[in-house]
Amino acid sequence: VKNRYPLLRIDDLFDQLQGSSMYSKIDLRSGYHQLRIKEEDIPINAFKTRYGHFEFQVMTFLLTNAPDVFMDLMNRVCKAYLDKFVIVFINDILVYSKDKEEHEKHLKIILKLLKKERLYAKFSKCDFWLDSVQFLGHVIDRSGVHVDPAKVKAIKSWAAPTTPMEVMQFLRLVGYYRRFIEGF
């Protein structure tokens, strides 16, 4: 059964960033794989290959509700800090603050929370103490939220759509940046 957990619009997430000037980005390592599957559900997540029968013990990307379940978990874990100094989008976490002192407090809170909940970050994909951060296809700094220049370049070099499906794909892509396109 498809779970309809509401993923927030990116625009709505970014509205809370006004007044911030210090950022840290935390990427959870193999996010879905950090969630164990209920014991009774393990047999229905099995698969066979020529090498034998295998059963997933953890949630996989293949499960229909994996993004919804993980987003729900992260929102429950970070609930006390959402809309205050944390944005969570599936396995991406953005900690934002007004200044360095505040940011140090915020980072300690979130890192302790992740440790307590046994949610592990992939250090090579994390960035700390930034004046400007790339997050969810945007660049965020003290002056606001901007389109990532690499995304603008990709959109400009996109081949002209020739089929209805290609038109729909292109509109979805540019629609993601609707707040920056006058009259969209």
UniProtKB/TrEMBL annotation:
Presence of the UniProt keyword Transferase in the record: yes
Keyword field: Nucleotidyltransferase, RNA-directed DNA polymerase, Transferase
Name assigned to this protein: Putative reverse transcriptase domain-containing protein
Alphabetized InterPro entries for the sequence: DNA/RNA_pol_sf, Rev_trsase/Diguanyl_cyclase, RNA-dir_DNA_polymerase, RT_dom
A Pfam match: RVT_1
Cited PANTHER family: RNA-DIRECTED DNA POLYMERASE, TRANSPOSON TY3-I GAG-POL POLYPROTEIN
UniProt GO molecular function: RNA-directed DNA polymerase activity
Residue stretches making up the Reverse transcriptase domain: 6-140
Species this protein is from: Tanacetum cinerariifolium
